[in-house]
Amino acid sequence: MSFPNRVFSGVQPTGNLHLGNYLGAIRNWVPLQDQAETIFCIVDLHALTAPQDPVLLKTQTREVTAAYIAAGIDPERSIIFNQSAVAAHSELSWLLGCYAPLGWLNRMTQFKEKAGKQRDNAVLGLYAYPVLMAADILLYKGTHVPVGEDQKQHLELARDIAGAFNRRYEVEFFPLPEPQILGAATRVMSLRDGTKKMSKSDASDYSRINMTDDADTVALKIQKAKTDPHPLPDTAAALDGRPEADNLLGIYAALAGQTRDQAVARFAGQPFSSFKRELADLSVSVLGPIGAEMKRLVGDPGHIDKILKRGAERAHAIADKVLADTQDIIGLLKP
Ligand code: TRP
Prior knowledge:
- With 335 residues, this protein is mainly α.
- The chain folds into two domains: 6-186 and 300-330, HUPs (Rossmann fold, 3-Layer(aba) Sandwich); 212-296, Orthogonal Bundle (Tyrosyl-Transfer RNA Synthetase), CATH 1.10.240.10.
- It contains 13 helices and five strands.
- A three-stranded parallel beta sheet has the order 1-2-3. Strands 4-5 form a two-stranded parallel ribbon.
- Helix 7 crosses helix 8 (152-169) and helix 10 packs across helix 11.
- The chain starts with 5 loop residues before the first strand and ends in a 5-residue tail after the last helix.
- The model has no long low-confidence stretch (mean pLDDT 95).
- The structure holds tryptophan (TRP).
């Protein structure tokens, strides 16, 4: 059976959105709007798997919404909403959890990393995180899920759960959603350590470029970014073992819409100093207008809330039907 193409993806509202979120995720979603029905969620329920300040959580939910729109996600063509506004996510998550053996969940590397050594202190929500993620996607019969490499394992679990459900009831009800790894710089690394992912939780703000950083801050962070003592190489292969050079050239290529080879050729033999000046100019010219638009949007929370409300209504229309059909297949009585 074939399902119409439907794209679903989401970002957690847990803090500063940075260049990694933009180049690795949000920016790559924009062209998908021309190819399929697109649903972009702010996954606030997933954010609760770590402690969140109640006031900040609301602000950050609006901020991610603003980032989506400023980056080019059109709230008319796409459905933009926050997860908790559609209760069916939680309900389907419970149902799907009943088809997910512990053995599958125990393999999830993200849980192992985040739970750390004190496994007994990890909350149930963190363990069940991938089941909620499967529910997010399957609630809309999502077929394509643009995500970073680190989410591929969760996508596989979503496929496994969908398959287990379909087999149990001998139906072809849920599609098996496919990961879409998009974009030249899917992995943007820290500016302070080219072997670590750029992250909102890094203690140093110099490790990342935030989407709302002003021009001077962006330029300063790039100027201070870690490098190595050699000039830039003339082949991409020579970037092996030079994580900082590799990262900065990758960022340049992604921002310029070039391949890594093109960016390498452009700066071959140059010192970092002149390359960094060009990288700073390019970063400011791409991120400047997006950051400014984000700030403008965030300044009008009422407008953002209207967009989210409308998005939630449209999401409801799809989700409620899929949930009702799921309940019916399972045999839950709707008196
Ligand atoms: N787990 C994803 C991340 O951290 C966020 C997410 C939640 C998601 N639900 C989703 C992504 C559904 C894609 C589809 O990046």
